[in-house]
């Protein structure tokens, strides 16, 4: 249930309403917008009398919420979430470009790629140190050393870094990582989500291979309910009957999530397609559909990449694509683009 308050409510009345609700075992999440305050009530609200609350002087409206996710719900928090990261931000009209290799492979590789993507206008460096591979015999990532190399690349370029955590035990290594990624396979690792909710770094949750929007939003809810509101959603394609592409990119996720949630939405055309030639058209489609950013795999030598070479762009192809992306985003930000 949400309680929308009138502007400038009487503070004594607000305090007594809150105390009354707390006395009934309800948790209150307060969201302060530019003009209005909204109280999100979490707990068993079935016994609360809507008419009684609506009749209070300070209350403008009371609504029951059907969706099981509350913190991630736009009804609860009408304004878009903006996540500040270094001297950039995710959401709020900014187009975030996360680019970098699937795996960090060596110091020279990550520095070379970081410099190249930065020169092309990427706003964040993404690289995997812990890799969730289908085969236990495949390259598993450089681990802690990979995280150190990402930090080195950040120091060289100024780009904030994004990397995937696979296990809660790895958390101390992510102390100084700017955005912690939860991979598709871990989207419903609820213990990991709770632990990430109890630490301060932003968390980007990739959509599970066969997860519904609601399941995905419930994963965001796990992090938010544990205290961390800085959650980003990343669509990376879902499993369908099609085998030509690695997955099927669900661009409908952008308008649907925009309606359901206030959280920023990133699109990953690299894992969605598995083919470098498809990355550019789908990246353009995602920007035209209104995403908050893209995650694009870029490797300095895709043919010899230790993981995901076939879907990786080389720096030249990324440069060409990013020019088109930025031009399209500039158009999308105009009145005509938004219409
Ligand atoms: C990745 O981002 O490198 C990755 C493994 O992706 P996903 O979890 O979407 O499969
Ligand atoms: Mn990858």
Could you tell me the CATH topology label of the largest domain: TIM Barrel
- Compute the number of strand runs: 14
pLDDT averaged over residues: 96
The number of domains: 2
Tally the helices. 11
Question: Which architecture name of the largest domain does CATH use?
Answer: Alpha-Beta Barrel
**What is the helix/strand order?**
EHEEHEEEEHEHEEHEHEHEHHEHH
- Tertiary shape: elongated
Which percent range describes the beta-strand content? 15-25%
Question: Any ligands, ions or cofactors bound here, and which?
Answer: phosphoenolpyruvate, manganese (II) ion
Summarize the main sheet: 8 strands, parallel, barrel
Give the class from helix and strand content and strand pairing: alpha/beta
Radius of gyration of CA atoms, rounded to a whole number = 21 Å
The helicity comes to 25-40%
How far the N terminus sits from the C terminus, by CA atoms, comes to 32 Å
CATH class term of the largest domain: Alpha Beta
Look at the structure and name the CATH superfamily of the largest domain: Aldolase class I
Q: Largest sheet, order of strands side by side?
A: 7-8-9-10-11-12-13-14
Q: Which consecutive residue ranges, at least 5 long each, have pLDDT under 50?
A: none
């Amino acid at each position: 249930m949400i309680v929308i308050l009138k502007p400038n409510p009487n503070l004594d009345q607000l305090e007594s309403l809150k105390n009354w609700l707390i006395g009934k075992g309800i948790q209150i999440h307060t969201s302060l917008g530019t003009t209005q305050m909204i109280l999100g009530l979490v707990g068993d609200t079935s016994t609360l009398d809507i008419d009684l609350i609506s009749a209070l002087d300070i209350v403008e409206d009371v609504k029951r919420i059907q969706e099981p996710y509350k913190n991630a719900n736009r009804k609860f928090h009408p304004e878009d979430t903006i996540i500040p990261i270094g001297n950039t931000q995710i959401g709020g009209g900014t187009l975030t470009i996360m680019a970098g290799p699937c795996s960090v492979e060596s110091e020279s590789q990550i520095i070379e790629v970081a410099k190249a993507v930065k020169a092309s206008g990427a706003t964040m460096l993404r690289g995997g140190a812990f890799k969730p591979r289908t085969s236990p015999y495949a390259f598993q990532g450089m681990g802690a050393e990979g995280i150190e190399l990402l930090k080195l690349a950040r120091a060289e370029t100024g780009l904030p870094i994004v990397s995937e955590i696979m296990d809660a035990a790895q958390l101390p290594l992510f102390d100084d990582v700017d955005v912690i990624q939860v991979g598709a396979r871990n989207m419903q690792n609820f213990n990991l989500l709770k632990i990430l909710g109890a630490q301060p770094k932003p968390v980007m949750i990739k959509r599970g291979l066969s997860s519904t929007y609601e399941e995905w939003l419930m994963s965001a809810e796990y992090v938010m309910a544990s205290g961390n509101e800085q959650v980003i959603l990343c669509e990376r394609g879902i499993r369908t009957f099609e085998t030509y592409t690695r997955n099927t990119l669900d661009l409908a996720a952008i308008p649907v999530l925009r309606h359901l949630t206030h959280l920023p939405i990133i699109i990953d055309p690299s894992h969605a397609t598995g083919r470098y030639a498809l990355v550019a058209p789908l990246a353009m489609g995602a920007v035209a559909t209104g995403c908050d950013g893209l995650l694009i795999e870029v490797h300095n030598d895709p043919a010899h990449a230790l993981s995901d070479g076939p879907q990786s762009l080389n720096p030249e192809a990324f440069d060409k694509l990013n020019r088109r992306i930025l031009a399209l985003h500039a158009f999308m930000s105009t009145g005509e683009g938004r219409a």
